[in-house]
Amino acid sequence: MLAAAAVLAALVAGVAAHYFGWVRARATLHYGGTVLPRRLVRALQERAAADAFAPVPWLVSGHAQTLAAGALRPTPHVRYHRELLRLSDGGQIALDWDDEADHGEAREKPVVLVEHGMNGGSKDNYVRHFILEARRAGMRCVVVNYRGVAGSTLLTGKIYSAGFTLEFREAVAHVRAAWPGCPLVGVGFSLGANIVSKYVCEEGHACPLSCAVAVSCPYELVRASGNLHGTLLHRTVYDPQLVTGLKRYFGRHRERILADFPQISEAEVARAHTLQEFDTACTVKIHGYPTADAYYADHSCAPLLSRARVPLLCLSAADDPMTPRDVLREVTAAADNGKYPCVVVAETSRGGHLGWLEWRGLCGARPYGSWADRFCVAFLQSVLACGQKQ
After folding, report:
1. CB 188 within 8 A of CB 171
2. What is the pLDDT of residues 197-250, one digit of tens each?
3. Which of 54, 164, 218, 325 is 20 to 30 Å apart from 87, CA to CA?
4. Band of residue 17 on the pLDDT scale cut at 50, 70, 90
5. Can you tell me the distance from the alpha carbon of 44 to that of 349, in angstroms, rounded to the nearest whole number?
6. Sign of CA dihedral 14, 17, 18, 19
7. What's the half-sphere exposure (Cβ side, CA atoms, 13 Å) at 45?
């Protein structure tokens, strides 16, 4: 009996050592610049060292994290109030404000402008979970929905795109005018991470944000698109899911799009089975590009990262199935070499795409919380505590 108990104890200890030594992942910070405040860099280093990501034991792989984030993670209730913003090009976007944030000191509270991913919106669970984390930290969030999503009307035939920053730029200007005394920060997820990063870099020294965060950014859209043809899972799950969402979006706004862009063939859109085929049939014709690859190249944020002049945190997982590993290696190497003076790339070995579902509490009492939400909000707090912008 004692021998059996000893064997069981040794087995449990071995599994625990394996889990905590091999599976738990501390973020590696890639930053070789000298521009950011030392206090901020030190705070990030301390956070990365003290708060390792411990994935749910049955969700260790990047694919498992990615798929479970949408399928298993419950969507919390967040009550919004909506504001419609007309754009300078005749379009319109919906700004969904967190209606439950504490407005006691509204004029001093930081405002977080949240940009969601492709086919997403303020309804998505990763957006809502992040809002709850930011709210607990005393921040007020507003979701910048792409034009024509989240139940909003598409006023012109122009649809949203992978790196067109006009919507986010005009949302930032609108919020700045409405709340002139509040610090503004930007947070983007997936495709929204590319847009927020690109906006920050385009603005340079004129950027009105105190800082920004890009979560699961694809960085290089040409190679990210090509990556969707890689594995069987990419070809049968990820790519079809993306193109199905875009075709539904097209269907909702079909009359408006075709009225403004009659050169688009509805039959060609219907035949699209991949993201690249949809973009070739529709997106490039609206945004004026000769090919999908030309569109992807022009909308990628990676070539612009050296132009960021406010602190920008890019959080990526090495096992993210949507970002090619060679792209992430190039971005982290450039950050290590000081080519991005205001960018910190935080890389974890695990986490998937918009995942980082962790195992917390006694016996995993809270198995589907996101380590990324906590890490990113801590970065925002550290920047705001520094009280300066580069």
Report:
1. no
2. 999 999 999 999 999 999 999 999 999 999 998 889 999 999 999 999 999 999
3. 218
4. very low
5. 17
6. positive
7. 8
**Assessment of whether the complete model's pTM goes beyond 0.85:** yes
Q: Encoding tokens for residue 292?
A: 């999908």
Which structure tokens are listed for 376? Answer: 């990113």
Is there a contact between 27 and 347 (Cβ–Cβ < 8 Å)? yes
Strands 140-144 and 111-115: parallel
Summarize pLDDT for 304-335 with one digit per residue, the tens. Answer: 999 999 999 999 999 999 999 999 999 999 99
Q: How far, in Å, CA of 287 to CA of 164, rounded?
A: 9
Of 23, 144, 129, 25, the residue nearest 73 (C-alpha) = 129
CA dihedral for 45, 333, 184, 132, sign (positive or negative): negative
Q: Which two tokens stand for residue 77?
A: 């209730």
Distance from C-alpha of 119 to C-alpha of 146, rounded to nearest angstrom: 9
Q: Quick one: how far is CA 258 from the chain centroid?
A: 30
Q: In what order do the strands lie in the sheet with 211-215?
A: 28-30, 343-348, 312-317, 211-215, 184-189, 111-115, 140-144, 92-98, 80-86
Residue environment code for 171-207, b if the CB has 16+ CB neighbours within 10 A, otherwise e: bbebbeeebeebbbbbbbbbbbbbbbbbbbbbbeeeb
Asked whether the predicted pLDDT for residue 12 surpasses 60, the reply is: no
What is residue 253's DSSP assignment? T
> What is the DSSP code (8-state) at residue 302?
G
Residue environment code for 289-301, b if the CB has 16+ CB neighbours within 10 A, otherwise e:
beebbebbebbbb
